Alanine dehydrogenase (Echinicola pacifica), 372 residues
Amino acid sequence: MIIGIPKEIKNNENRVALTPAGAQELVKRGHTVYIQETAGIGSGFPDHMYTEAGAKILPTISEVYQIAEMIMKVKEPIEAEYDLIREDQLLFTYFHFASYEPLTKAMLKSKSICLAYETVESIHGGLPLLVPMSEVAGRMATQKGANYLEKPLGGKGILMGGVPGTLPAKVMILGGGVVGTQAAWMAAGMKADVTILDVSLPRMRYLSDVMPANVKTRMSNEYNIREMIQTADLIIGAVLIPGAKAPHLITRDMLKDMQPGTVLVDVAVDQGGCIETCKPTTHEDPTFIIDDVLHYCVANMPGAVPYTSTIALTNATLPYALQLAEKGWKKAAQDNYELAKGLNVIHGEVVYKAVADAFDLNYTPVEKYLVG
């Protein structure tokens, strides 16, 4: 198969979809890898590392799209890429369709095959291609939150762990999944007073067993949320419903109950956000303030640490990319339930129900393309 790796052109996105090591694994199995010139430079991988691994360099993004049977990316295609995508071309990347209707409609129009990292799902319900970036984003959420609690940046002027004779910051984490767990570990390590809210008792029992003493758990409901936001210093949104929009657990009216300088970090912003007042921001202009509450809602947080993120992502995606390259998308999805769950759009039809529901679009079961 011919695999194309375009340079990411989303604002301040320095990751790349494949490391030189990943390219070498594909090439030694007989596949051809084309990578756009300087696509890996932001992650610390110059062009010569790819050519030494057997990949070929192309100067423009249009040439990469034109020649490739499978496009591997990190972030969803943006508007400048829509017309480059061909009918029957396989796109393997993060899409987060349910949060952005124009992207969904553009991919339907292209009649391409869209296989979304974020909905590849194991038989146990895990999301193996979302996990590595969720781990990065969760740890960064605490890191960024601690930074923005500083007074010159708009926060309350609180040190996360305090010092002897002072109280530590109160960190409230909505969701005890991968993002929430990683955020809690970081906040705990900084000696903050941490509470994770979740709706699953088994998950909270597990977290209570593995977390240090300065991390507590509490049932996630409106009553508890409204009570806790009154004294929280840093609130991290870490809610995920696979392939669907995140619910608004913090609504606009709740901001009036927060103290000035409270910091909100919404990691769920890729899927619409779990904080109603959050809207996607960029690394270039990451924050805004509403009602004296600071919002950090960068939609590609792991893009700020591209070396770590690119290696972590390739570690997870490469086994699936090899299956797709060796078998083609249809046979690979027939043989592997996890890849079948990743299919969102095929030949102008939505085949993932949560995406269809988000925009009231016609839904076609994926089995139409996989059976027989």
